[in-house]
Amino acid sequence: MINLLGSLYGFYWYWPQLSQTPPSRWFIVPDSPGATFLFSIWLAFLLAGADWRSPGMQVLGAVAFVSNMKYGLWTATVLPQAGFKYGWEFEFFHLTLSHLGMWVQGLLFARHYPPGPAPAALALAWMVVQDAVDYRLWMTHPTLPYQAEFGFARGVAMALSLLWGLFLLGQALGSGRRVHG
């Protein structure tokens, strides 16, 4: 429920950016609400009895876990950086705290429901594609509080894509154990 409410708020927060983006690109713009929405879908299927080891659940889970870890920590890094440099705004506090929750949930579920190597590699590839689209091709990165932070935000995004994508791939390759079932 918290993820769904957070997703709704996130889509609302992204509305000014979405309204200036061609609709064909909307799927790539709302990074954090997209991540929490995917996680909500994965969790709903799991609670409804879906086998987390099925190919579809593996791919959905891998992308949801990596997205939550990446965008959760990205926001909790980029906004405080801006706050320390330019001054704190209330929005920085509540977004930083809520995004740390995204990071924790992604990390916990990735450890307990590790995907196979192919879904993990696909999730890593998706993160790299998102960075290329967000920061190079279409410039659909999240609206930054200060445009001067673009280079920092891009560097953090790319580093976190690799870090969490490789973490998940390591989980998949190094884990002969499965916590559930």
UniProtKB/TrEMBL annotation:
User: What highest taxon heads this organism's lineage?
Assistant: Bacteria
Indicate the transmembrane segments per the record.
Answer: 34-52, 59-80, 117-138, 150-169
InterPro entries recorded? DUF1405 (IPR009845)
Q: What Pfam families does UniProt report for this protein, alphabetically?
A: DUF1405
Enumerate the UniProt keywords alphabetically.
Membrane, Transmembrane, Transmembrane helix
Q: What is this protein called?
A: DUF1405 domain-containing protein
